Amino acid sequence: MVTIIDVARAAGVAPSTVSYVLSGKRSISPQTRRVVEQSIRRLGYHPHAGARSLASSRTNVLALVAPLREDLTVMDFVAAVASAARDHDQDLLLLTKDEGPTALRRVISSALADAMIVLDVEAADPRLPTLLALGRPVVLIGTPSQPTGLTSVDLDYTAAGERCVEHLVDLGHRSIGMVGPAPAVYQRGVNSAFRFLRGLTDSAQAHGMLFRARPCGHNYDAVRDCLDALLRLEPTALVVHNESALPIVLAELHRRGLRVPADMSVVAVCSDTAATSGAVPLTTVSIPAAELGRLAVEMVIRQITGSTQPETRLLPPRLTPRASTASRP
């Protein structure tokens, strides 16, 4: 295993100089710092988390709070945050959302992590008062309904809903149905679901379109009942904001003899992987998990290094037309 002495020998400096470069506790000339950093990269040296903590009063660990459920999108976010943390020489501690505020206090009080990144934020999230009181850097992936004084980053779901309607209007559609998230998502108050629905509803009304939305569970019976209700409106397009139900929606349309896109255009809010894995490549508004994870880590690193100004950043939606949408039949 490579040690700090190996790095010092390769760089031609004292071990204490390598320690100062890592901790930032003393001023080191740019030339010496560059030589030491090159030796660290060349040898693949990784300082032990405990040693880093003693040297710098930091753990170089970020805590990620994520829901404990089988959800491909959640796993995309976890992978994105882990990758971005590694790029910043940070380790990742994964906490489950189900543990609630108690877990947040436990981690911070025991100095296990320097900062927190929180997924699956609700409109009136009960964890927010605890996060504010912790006095540590925090970034939310997702935005509460009211300003909180905490930094957050998210997709602009209201604009995403509007973009879906605009795309279908351009293709001549005048009647749209929406397959929404499961009822539990609305019951938990997940703000992204409400913002997307608001964007769809307001844009449909502005264009004089017929529009109906239904929450939808993830099993076959729930999808069948949802489509039964929506198809009474005789829509020529569906917007699916439920990645888990998406494969069943497409299978059920096929069973009913509705061809995509000849009889029914489909726009999905999902990952690009889900959009291109089926028989018909789907027109999508992509969930930019990689970009949101990277930005969340960059924002929390800025807080760790001194920035105290809270910020909210909403990424503009990116709609990618594919084979699942066409002109109104």
Characteristic key phrases:
alpha/beta, 17% strand, Rossmann fold, 14 helices, 3 domains, 45% helix, 434 Repressor (Amino-terminal Domain)
Care to describe what's here?
By secondary structure, the protein is α/β, with parallel strands linked by helices. The longest helix has 16 residues, at 72-87. The chain is 45% helix and 17% strand. The strands form two sheets. A six-stranded parallel sheet has the order 2-1-3-4-5-11, with helices on both faces. The protein folds into three domains: 4-56, Orthogonal Bundle (434 Repressor (Amino-terminal Domain)), CATH 1.10.260.40; 61-155 and 289-315, Response regulator (Rossmann fold, 3-Layer(aba) Sandwich); 157-287, Rossmann fold, CATH 3.40.50. It is elongated, with a radius of gyration of 24 Å. It comes from Kutzneria chonburiensis. Keywords: DNA-binding, Transcription, Transcription regulation. This is LacI family DNA-binding transcriptional regulator. Residues 310-329 are annotated as: Disordered.
Mean pLDDT over all positions: 88
CATH architecture of the largest domain: 3-Layer(aba) Sandwich
Q: Based on helices, strands and strand pairing, what is the structural class?
A: alpha/beta
Radius of gyration (Å): 24 Å
Number of domains: 3
Strand content: 15-25%
CATH overall fold name of the largest domain: Rossmann fold
For the biggest sheet, the summary is:
6 strands, parallel
Helix content: 40-55%
Task: State the distance separating the first and last CA atoms.
Answer: 66 Å
Tell me the name of the CATH homologous superfamily of the largest domain.
Response regulator
General shape: elongated
CATH C-level class of the largest domain: Alpha Beta
- Report the order of strands and helices: HHHHEHEHEHEEHEHHEHEHEHEHEE
The order of strands across the largest sheet is: 2-1-3-4-5-11
Supply the number of helical segments: 14
Low-confidence region ranges: 51-55
